[in-house]
């Protein structure tokens, strides 16, 4: 196992810390914007293996990250279950009405994603790992119930609290398809997997344990049976100290921006690797503020397994030269 990311996910305190960035492929890169302008809608882009593979590889070529993360979207899963999914310029995802009884896997809809995985894996440098991913059931369910993004997410919260039995049916279905989706990415060549629970912080602690932690536990157990050598990164955003409970499930826990790295070193690193957690706005700001914060994170987590990353995704207004500078800071850290 010569790849720095995989060593860290296996529990090794690798120095310099391996790094990659959530949303490292995307709108802040001029090469992405040029390619995006030639493509159709966003979902077409995700389901075009040559284009999706090229986008996945762009930041690795430019910045030399230790991992590529597959260019795709968490909403390919509801699309694969037959729910209408489209992306509207300036608005984001729009999903059709949810009919739970009508949801069922549509054969072949996710096959282009796995083809992309194979294309990327064949093109990566020998030292660079490939990460596949999926949205966690709670977060995917939030979009499916709400019909898109939301400020307060009232409909999914109302369903989870008011009709937990019915909501559990949706979560159970999403657990099943998520396991299949992640396992298929591993079959195609993904060397690590990440489960994004971007909206876990909407829930109170009991809800986090029921709708985020337990589904993650089931997904991790099923993946361990099918791909025991493929590590799983969990990113339960906004859960505070409950992040420590996720450490007993996955190989690595991603920290959001609000998490204290010193706390994570004491509470999480003994059980799992830690990933994170620079504020994406500091990557926009750059300069001394970014460097100081990055060095503090690296110092706090240097005695255990650590994968340097952001506390959420790269913002579209990020100057690419700041990403290059961050890469130098991480590589030169003691």
Please outline the helices and strands:
Blueprint: H1 4-9, H2 30-38, H3 42-46, H4 49-63, E1 67-69, H5 76-80, E2 85-88, E3 92-95, H6 111-123, E4 129-135, H7 137-146, H8 154-162, H9 164-188, E5 192-197, H10 205-226, E6 232-236, H11 243-246, E7 252-254, H12 261-267, E8 273-275, H13 280-285, H14 287-300, E9 306-307, H15 320-332
Parallel strand pairs: 1-4, 4-5, 5-6, 6-7, 7-8, 8-9
Antiparallel strand pairs: 2-3
Mean pLDDT, to the nearest integer, reads 97
Principal-axes shape call: globular
Strand content: 5-15%
CATH class: Alpha Beta
- Spatial strand sequence of the major β-sheet: 1-4-5-6-7-8-9
Binned, the helix content reads 40-55%
**What is the makeup of the main sheet?**
7 strands, parallel
Unreliable residue runs: none
Q: Ends: how far apart?
A: 23 Å
């Amino acid at each position: 196992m010569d790849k720095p990311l995989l060593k860290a996910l296996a529990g090794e305190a690798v120095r310099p810390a391996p790094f990659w960035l959530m949303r490292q492929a995307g709108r802040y890169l001029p090469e992405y914007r040029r390619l995006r302008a030639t493509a159709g809608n966003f979902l077409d882009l995700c389901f075009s293996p040559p284009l999706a593979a090229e986008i996945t590889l762009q930041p690795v070529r430019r910045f030399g990250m230790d991992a590529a993360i597959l260019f795709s979207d968490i909403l390919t899963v509801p699309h694969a279950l037959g729910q209408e999914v489209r992306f509207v310029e300036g608005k984001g995802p729009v999903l059709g009405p949810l009919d739970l009884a009508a949801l069922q896997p549509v054969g072949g809809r996710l096959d282009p994603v796995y083809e992309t995985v194979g294309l990327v894996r064949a093109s990566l440098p020998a030292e660079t790992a490939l990460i596949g991913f999926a949205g966690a059931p709670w977060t995917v369910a939030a979009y499916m119930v709400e019909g898109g993004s939301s400020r307060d997410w009232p409909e999914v919260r109302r369903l989870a609290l008011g009709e937990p039995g019915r909501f559990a049916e949706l979560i159970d279905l999403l657990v099943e398809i998520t396991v299949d989706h992640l396992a298929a990415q591993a079959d195609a060549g993904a060397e690590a997997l990440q489960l994004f629970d971007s909206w876990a912080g909407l829930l109170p602690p009991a809800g986090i344990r029921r709708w985020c932690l337990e589904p993650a536990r089931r997904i991790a157990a099923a993946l361990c049976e099918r791909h025991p050598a493929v590590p799983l990164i969990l990113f339960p955003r906004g859960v505070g100290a409950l992040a420590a409970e996720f450490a007993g499930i996955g190989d690595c826990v991603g920290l959001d921006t609000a998490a204290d790295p010193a706390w994570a070193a004491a509470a999480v690193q003994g059980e799992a690797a830690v990933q994170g957690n620079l504020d994406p706005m500091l990557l926009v700001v750059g300069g001394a503020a970014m460097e100081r914060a990055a060095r503090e994170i690296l110092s706090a987590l240097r005695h255990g397994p650590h994968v340097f990353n952001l506390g959420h995704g790269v913002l579209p207004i990020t100057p690419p030269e700041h990403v290059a500078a961050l890469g130098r800071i991480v590589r030169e850290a003691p």
